[in-house]
Write a structure and sequence with these properties.
With 219 residues, the protein is mainly alpha-helical. The chain folds into three domains: 70 residues, Orthogonal Bundle (434 Repressor (Amino-terminal Domain)), CATH 1.10.260; 80 residues, no CATH class; 56 residues, no CATH class. The chain contains nine helices and two strands. α2 crosses α3.
Length: 219
């Protein structure tokens, strides 16, 4: 379980106000309060906060087993694996909505949902990923986000998420096309060149995602 209220403890130990910490983190005081109150934030924000306080991100997670609680202890290697998975999924268009410990199988189960906007790593993120991989990730002008996901995911994970993402996007576009054409028909809207182009663009995007099933194509 994550404990973002520990941000207050870190501020107190460094004689910092939440307002000052938020400002130096590049966010509003209200945003920082919301992170603490909801006990939720994006993985890249958690990394930024950890770097700001010069601590390992694992500080915000349970660090010991207690027979009377659901707290658990995990190794740094396992934690790094979870971080890599979350980042890989974010690059691939998914955001983690739940992290749950399976007591019977003794492993974490992660639940993801599609993002409106895929996460694009910055230079500092590449450096952090390199530290998790324990080897420098070489980035050139030809490197794409997909190249990074292939480094961080297994082939099965990559195939599944790629196909699932394409399926969801196709359904969203189909619904958008249906609403648009239904509106035009119902209200007898005059078909302009702009509307024709918009409809064709939607059809082309649907066709693109229909052909996006990459099962077995990931080399």
């Amino acid at each position: 379980m994550i404990h973002l209220n520990r941000i207050k403890k870190l501020c107190k130990s460094r004689n910092l106000t939440l307002k000052k910490a938020a400002s130096e983190l590049g966010m509003t005081e209200q945003s920082l309060h919301k992170i603490i109150k909801t006990n939720s934030t994006k993985i890249e924000t958690l990394i930024t906060i950890s770097e700001y306080f010069n601590i390992d991100p694992i500080y915000f997670f349970d660090s010991q087993v207690n027979e009377d609680s659901d707290s658990i202890r995990i190794s740094k290697q396992e934690f790094n694996g979870l971080i890599k998975k979350v980042i890989a999924y974010s690059i691939h268009g998914f955001g983690m909505i739940k992290l749950e410990w399976n007591k019977d199988q003794k492993k974490f189960e992660t639940y993801f949902d599609i993002l409106e906007k895929q996460y694009t790593p910055e230079e500092k993120d590449i450096e952090y990923l390199s530290s998790l991989q324990e080897s420098k990730i070489e980035v050139t002008e030809e490197t794409t986000p997909i190249d990074l996901t292939k480094l961080l995911m297994t082939k099965d994970e990559y195939d599944f998420t790629s196909t699932y993402y394409s399926s969801i996007k196709k359904m969203q576009l189909q619904e958008e096309l249906y609403k648009l054409t239904t509106f035009i028909d119902r209200y007898h809207v005059k078909m302009t060149n702009t509307l024709k182009q918009e409809i064709q663009d939607l059809k082309d995007r649907i066709k693109y995602y229909e052909s996006k099933s990459i099962i077995g194509k990931n080399q």
